[in-house]
Amino acid sequence: MLIVSNWKAYVSDLTKAKKLLEIAKRYARKNLAIVLAPPAPLLGLFSSKGGSVGFAAQDISLVMGGAVTGEITAEAYALSGATYALVGHSERRALGDTDNIVTEKLARALSGGLIPILCVGEEERDLEGRYLSVIREQLTTTLSSLSPKELSRVVVAYEPLWAIGKTASAAIKPNDLTEMVLYIRKVLSELLPEKASAKNLVLYGGSTEPENAKSLSHETGVDGFLVGHASAEPESYALLLKELS
Ligand code: PGA
Fold first, then answer.
1. Is there an atom of ligand 1 within 6 Å of 228 CB?
2. Do the Cβ atoms of 60 and 109 come closer than 8 Å?
């Protein structure tokens, strides 16, 4: 199982950040890989290559370098110890990342040596199942231009917008997650030859909390979680990781 802890802009206190890192180290093991996605300066401060905890960029720049003040390239993140990059998180999409931009960022992450965690998710669930075509569209438009080798490195995080930043009771139900994981695997299998897509990790994100983590991980086929608010408070983070251990 892979747990990606997306601190967003929740953490800017060094004592708290150190506490969260200690908790991650305590629970990280072979079958519970833990990746932290802190704000960029903290990533640079904390990350150590080869440590038990991995690091991810919360976003990467579209630019490849040059005279662009404030941008952080995939290469710079890789150099400061990141191995993953979130790409297309809904909070970045809300600030202007279109599918075209997401496609380019995927390419930047891969060429910069980072494993992209591609976030996809529908805004709402309708009874006619249109949400499935939203997910198909997001996956195919962003992944079609990648080579099979590149595609095999991509992690997909399914993050329905209606479930983000709420509480466990508003999160997806295990049955619905099982359906979605199968569906994402089906779409990936159409993009990748043979059985290669079975190796792509599929994560879930959206109000994963200590209360629902176990049931969402059990028999849903999900390979892990992209956790936001519950990963940014020591108490809930420790409880969550305990539930998943
Ligand atoms: P949440 O965020 O766990 O706070 O819902 C998940 C995410 O946006 O990655």
1. yes
2. yes
